[in-house]
Amino acid sequence: MRRANTGLRPRESESFDIAFDWYLDGGQYFSAAAFYKIIDNQISTVTSEEDIDGVLYTVTQPVNLDQVSVSGLELSYTDDAFEFLPAPFNGLGVAANLTLMDGKDGPAPGGSLIAQPDYLYNIAGLYNYGPFSAKLTYNYVDDRPTSATQAEYQYEQLDLQLRYQLTERLQMQVEGRNIQNNPRKNIYTDSGVLREINDFGNSWWFGVSYRY
Hints:
Elements: E1 12-23, E2 28-40, E3 43-52, E4 55-64, E5 68-79, E6 92-104, E7 119-129, E8 132-141, E9 144-145, E10 150-152, E11 155-165, E12 170-177, E13 184-188, E14 194-198, E15 203-210
């Protein structure tokens, strides 16, 4: 059974960040940022056995944890257009970022926080030429704890976006998400045994926008 916790305290945090940005020639951009967060009253969920009127129940409810923290590093790079290439290939570009995270005193194995992967990254191929633009994005997320004993297994996703400017005001758009139809898996962290598979499929949007 699930039960609310009326004594739950609000989550509070202090955050320390430092970042550096470099704007290079030809639309290139690089950034590096580090962060450290101290979190009080972090909210988590626990499951325990409890005797209620002589009957043993499995009770799940939210609770406050002691102080936890998470630190990390973020790196990003963008080049809007490969100007050194001849037309029409000079419309190609790339954007990429990487995030590394390390939790401490969290409820998951290794002190990680719930829903905190150790790292994630994405890489996008860009193309802009005349009225046409395209963006193909690859996303990867490492194992992400969903409880003290379970985790969402590492997953990858490929998304696509196409746009065509018919007139100055009228634009057509096509967008596809998870076009490889990759499922998401949940595992037991102590053994790596598969717990469940969630197959969300892929989705497509077709649209037309008009700007007044």
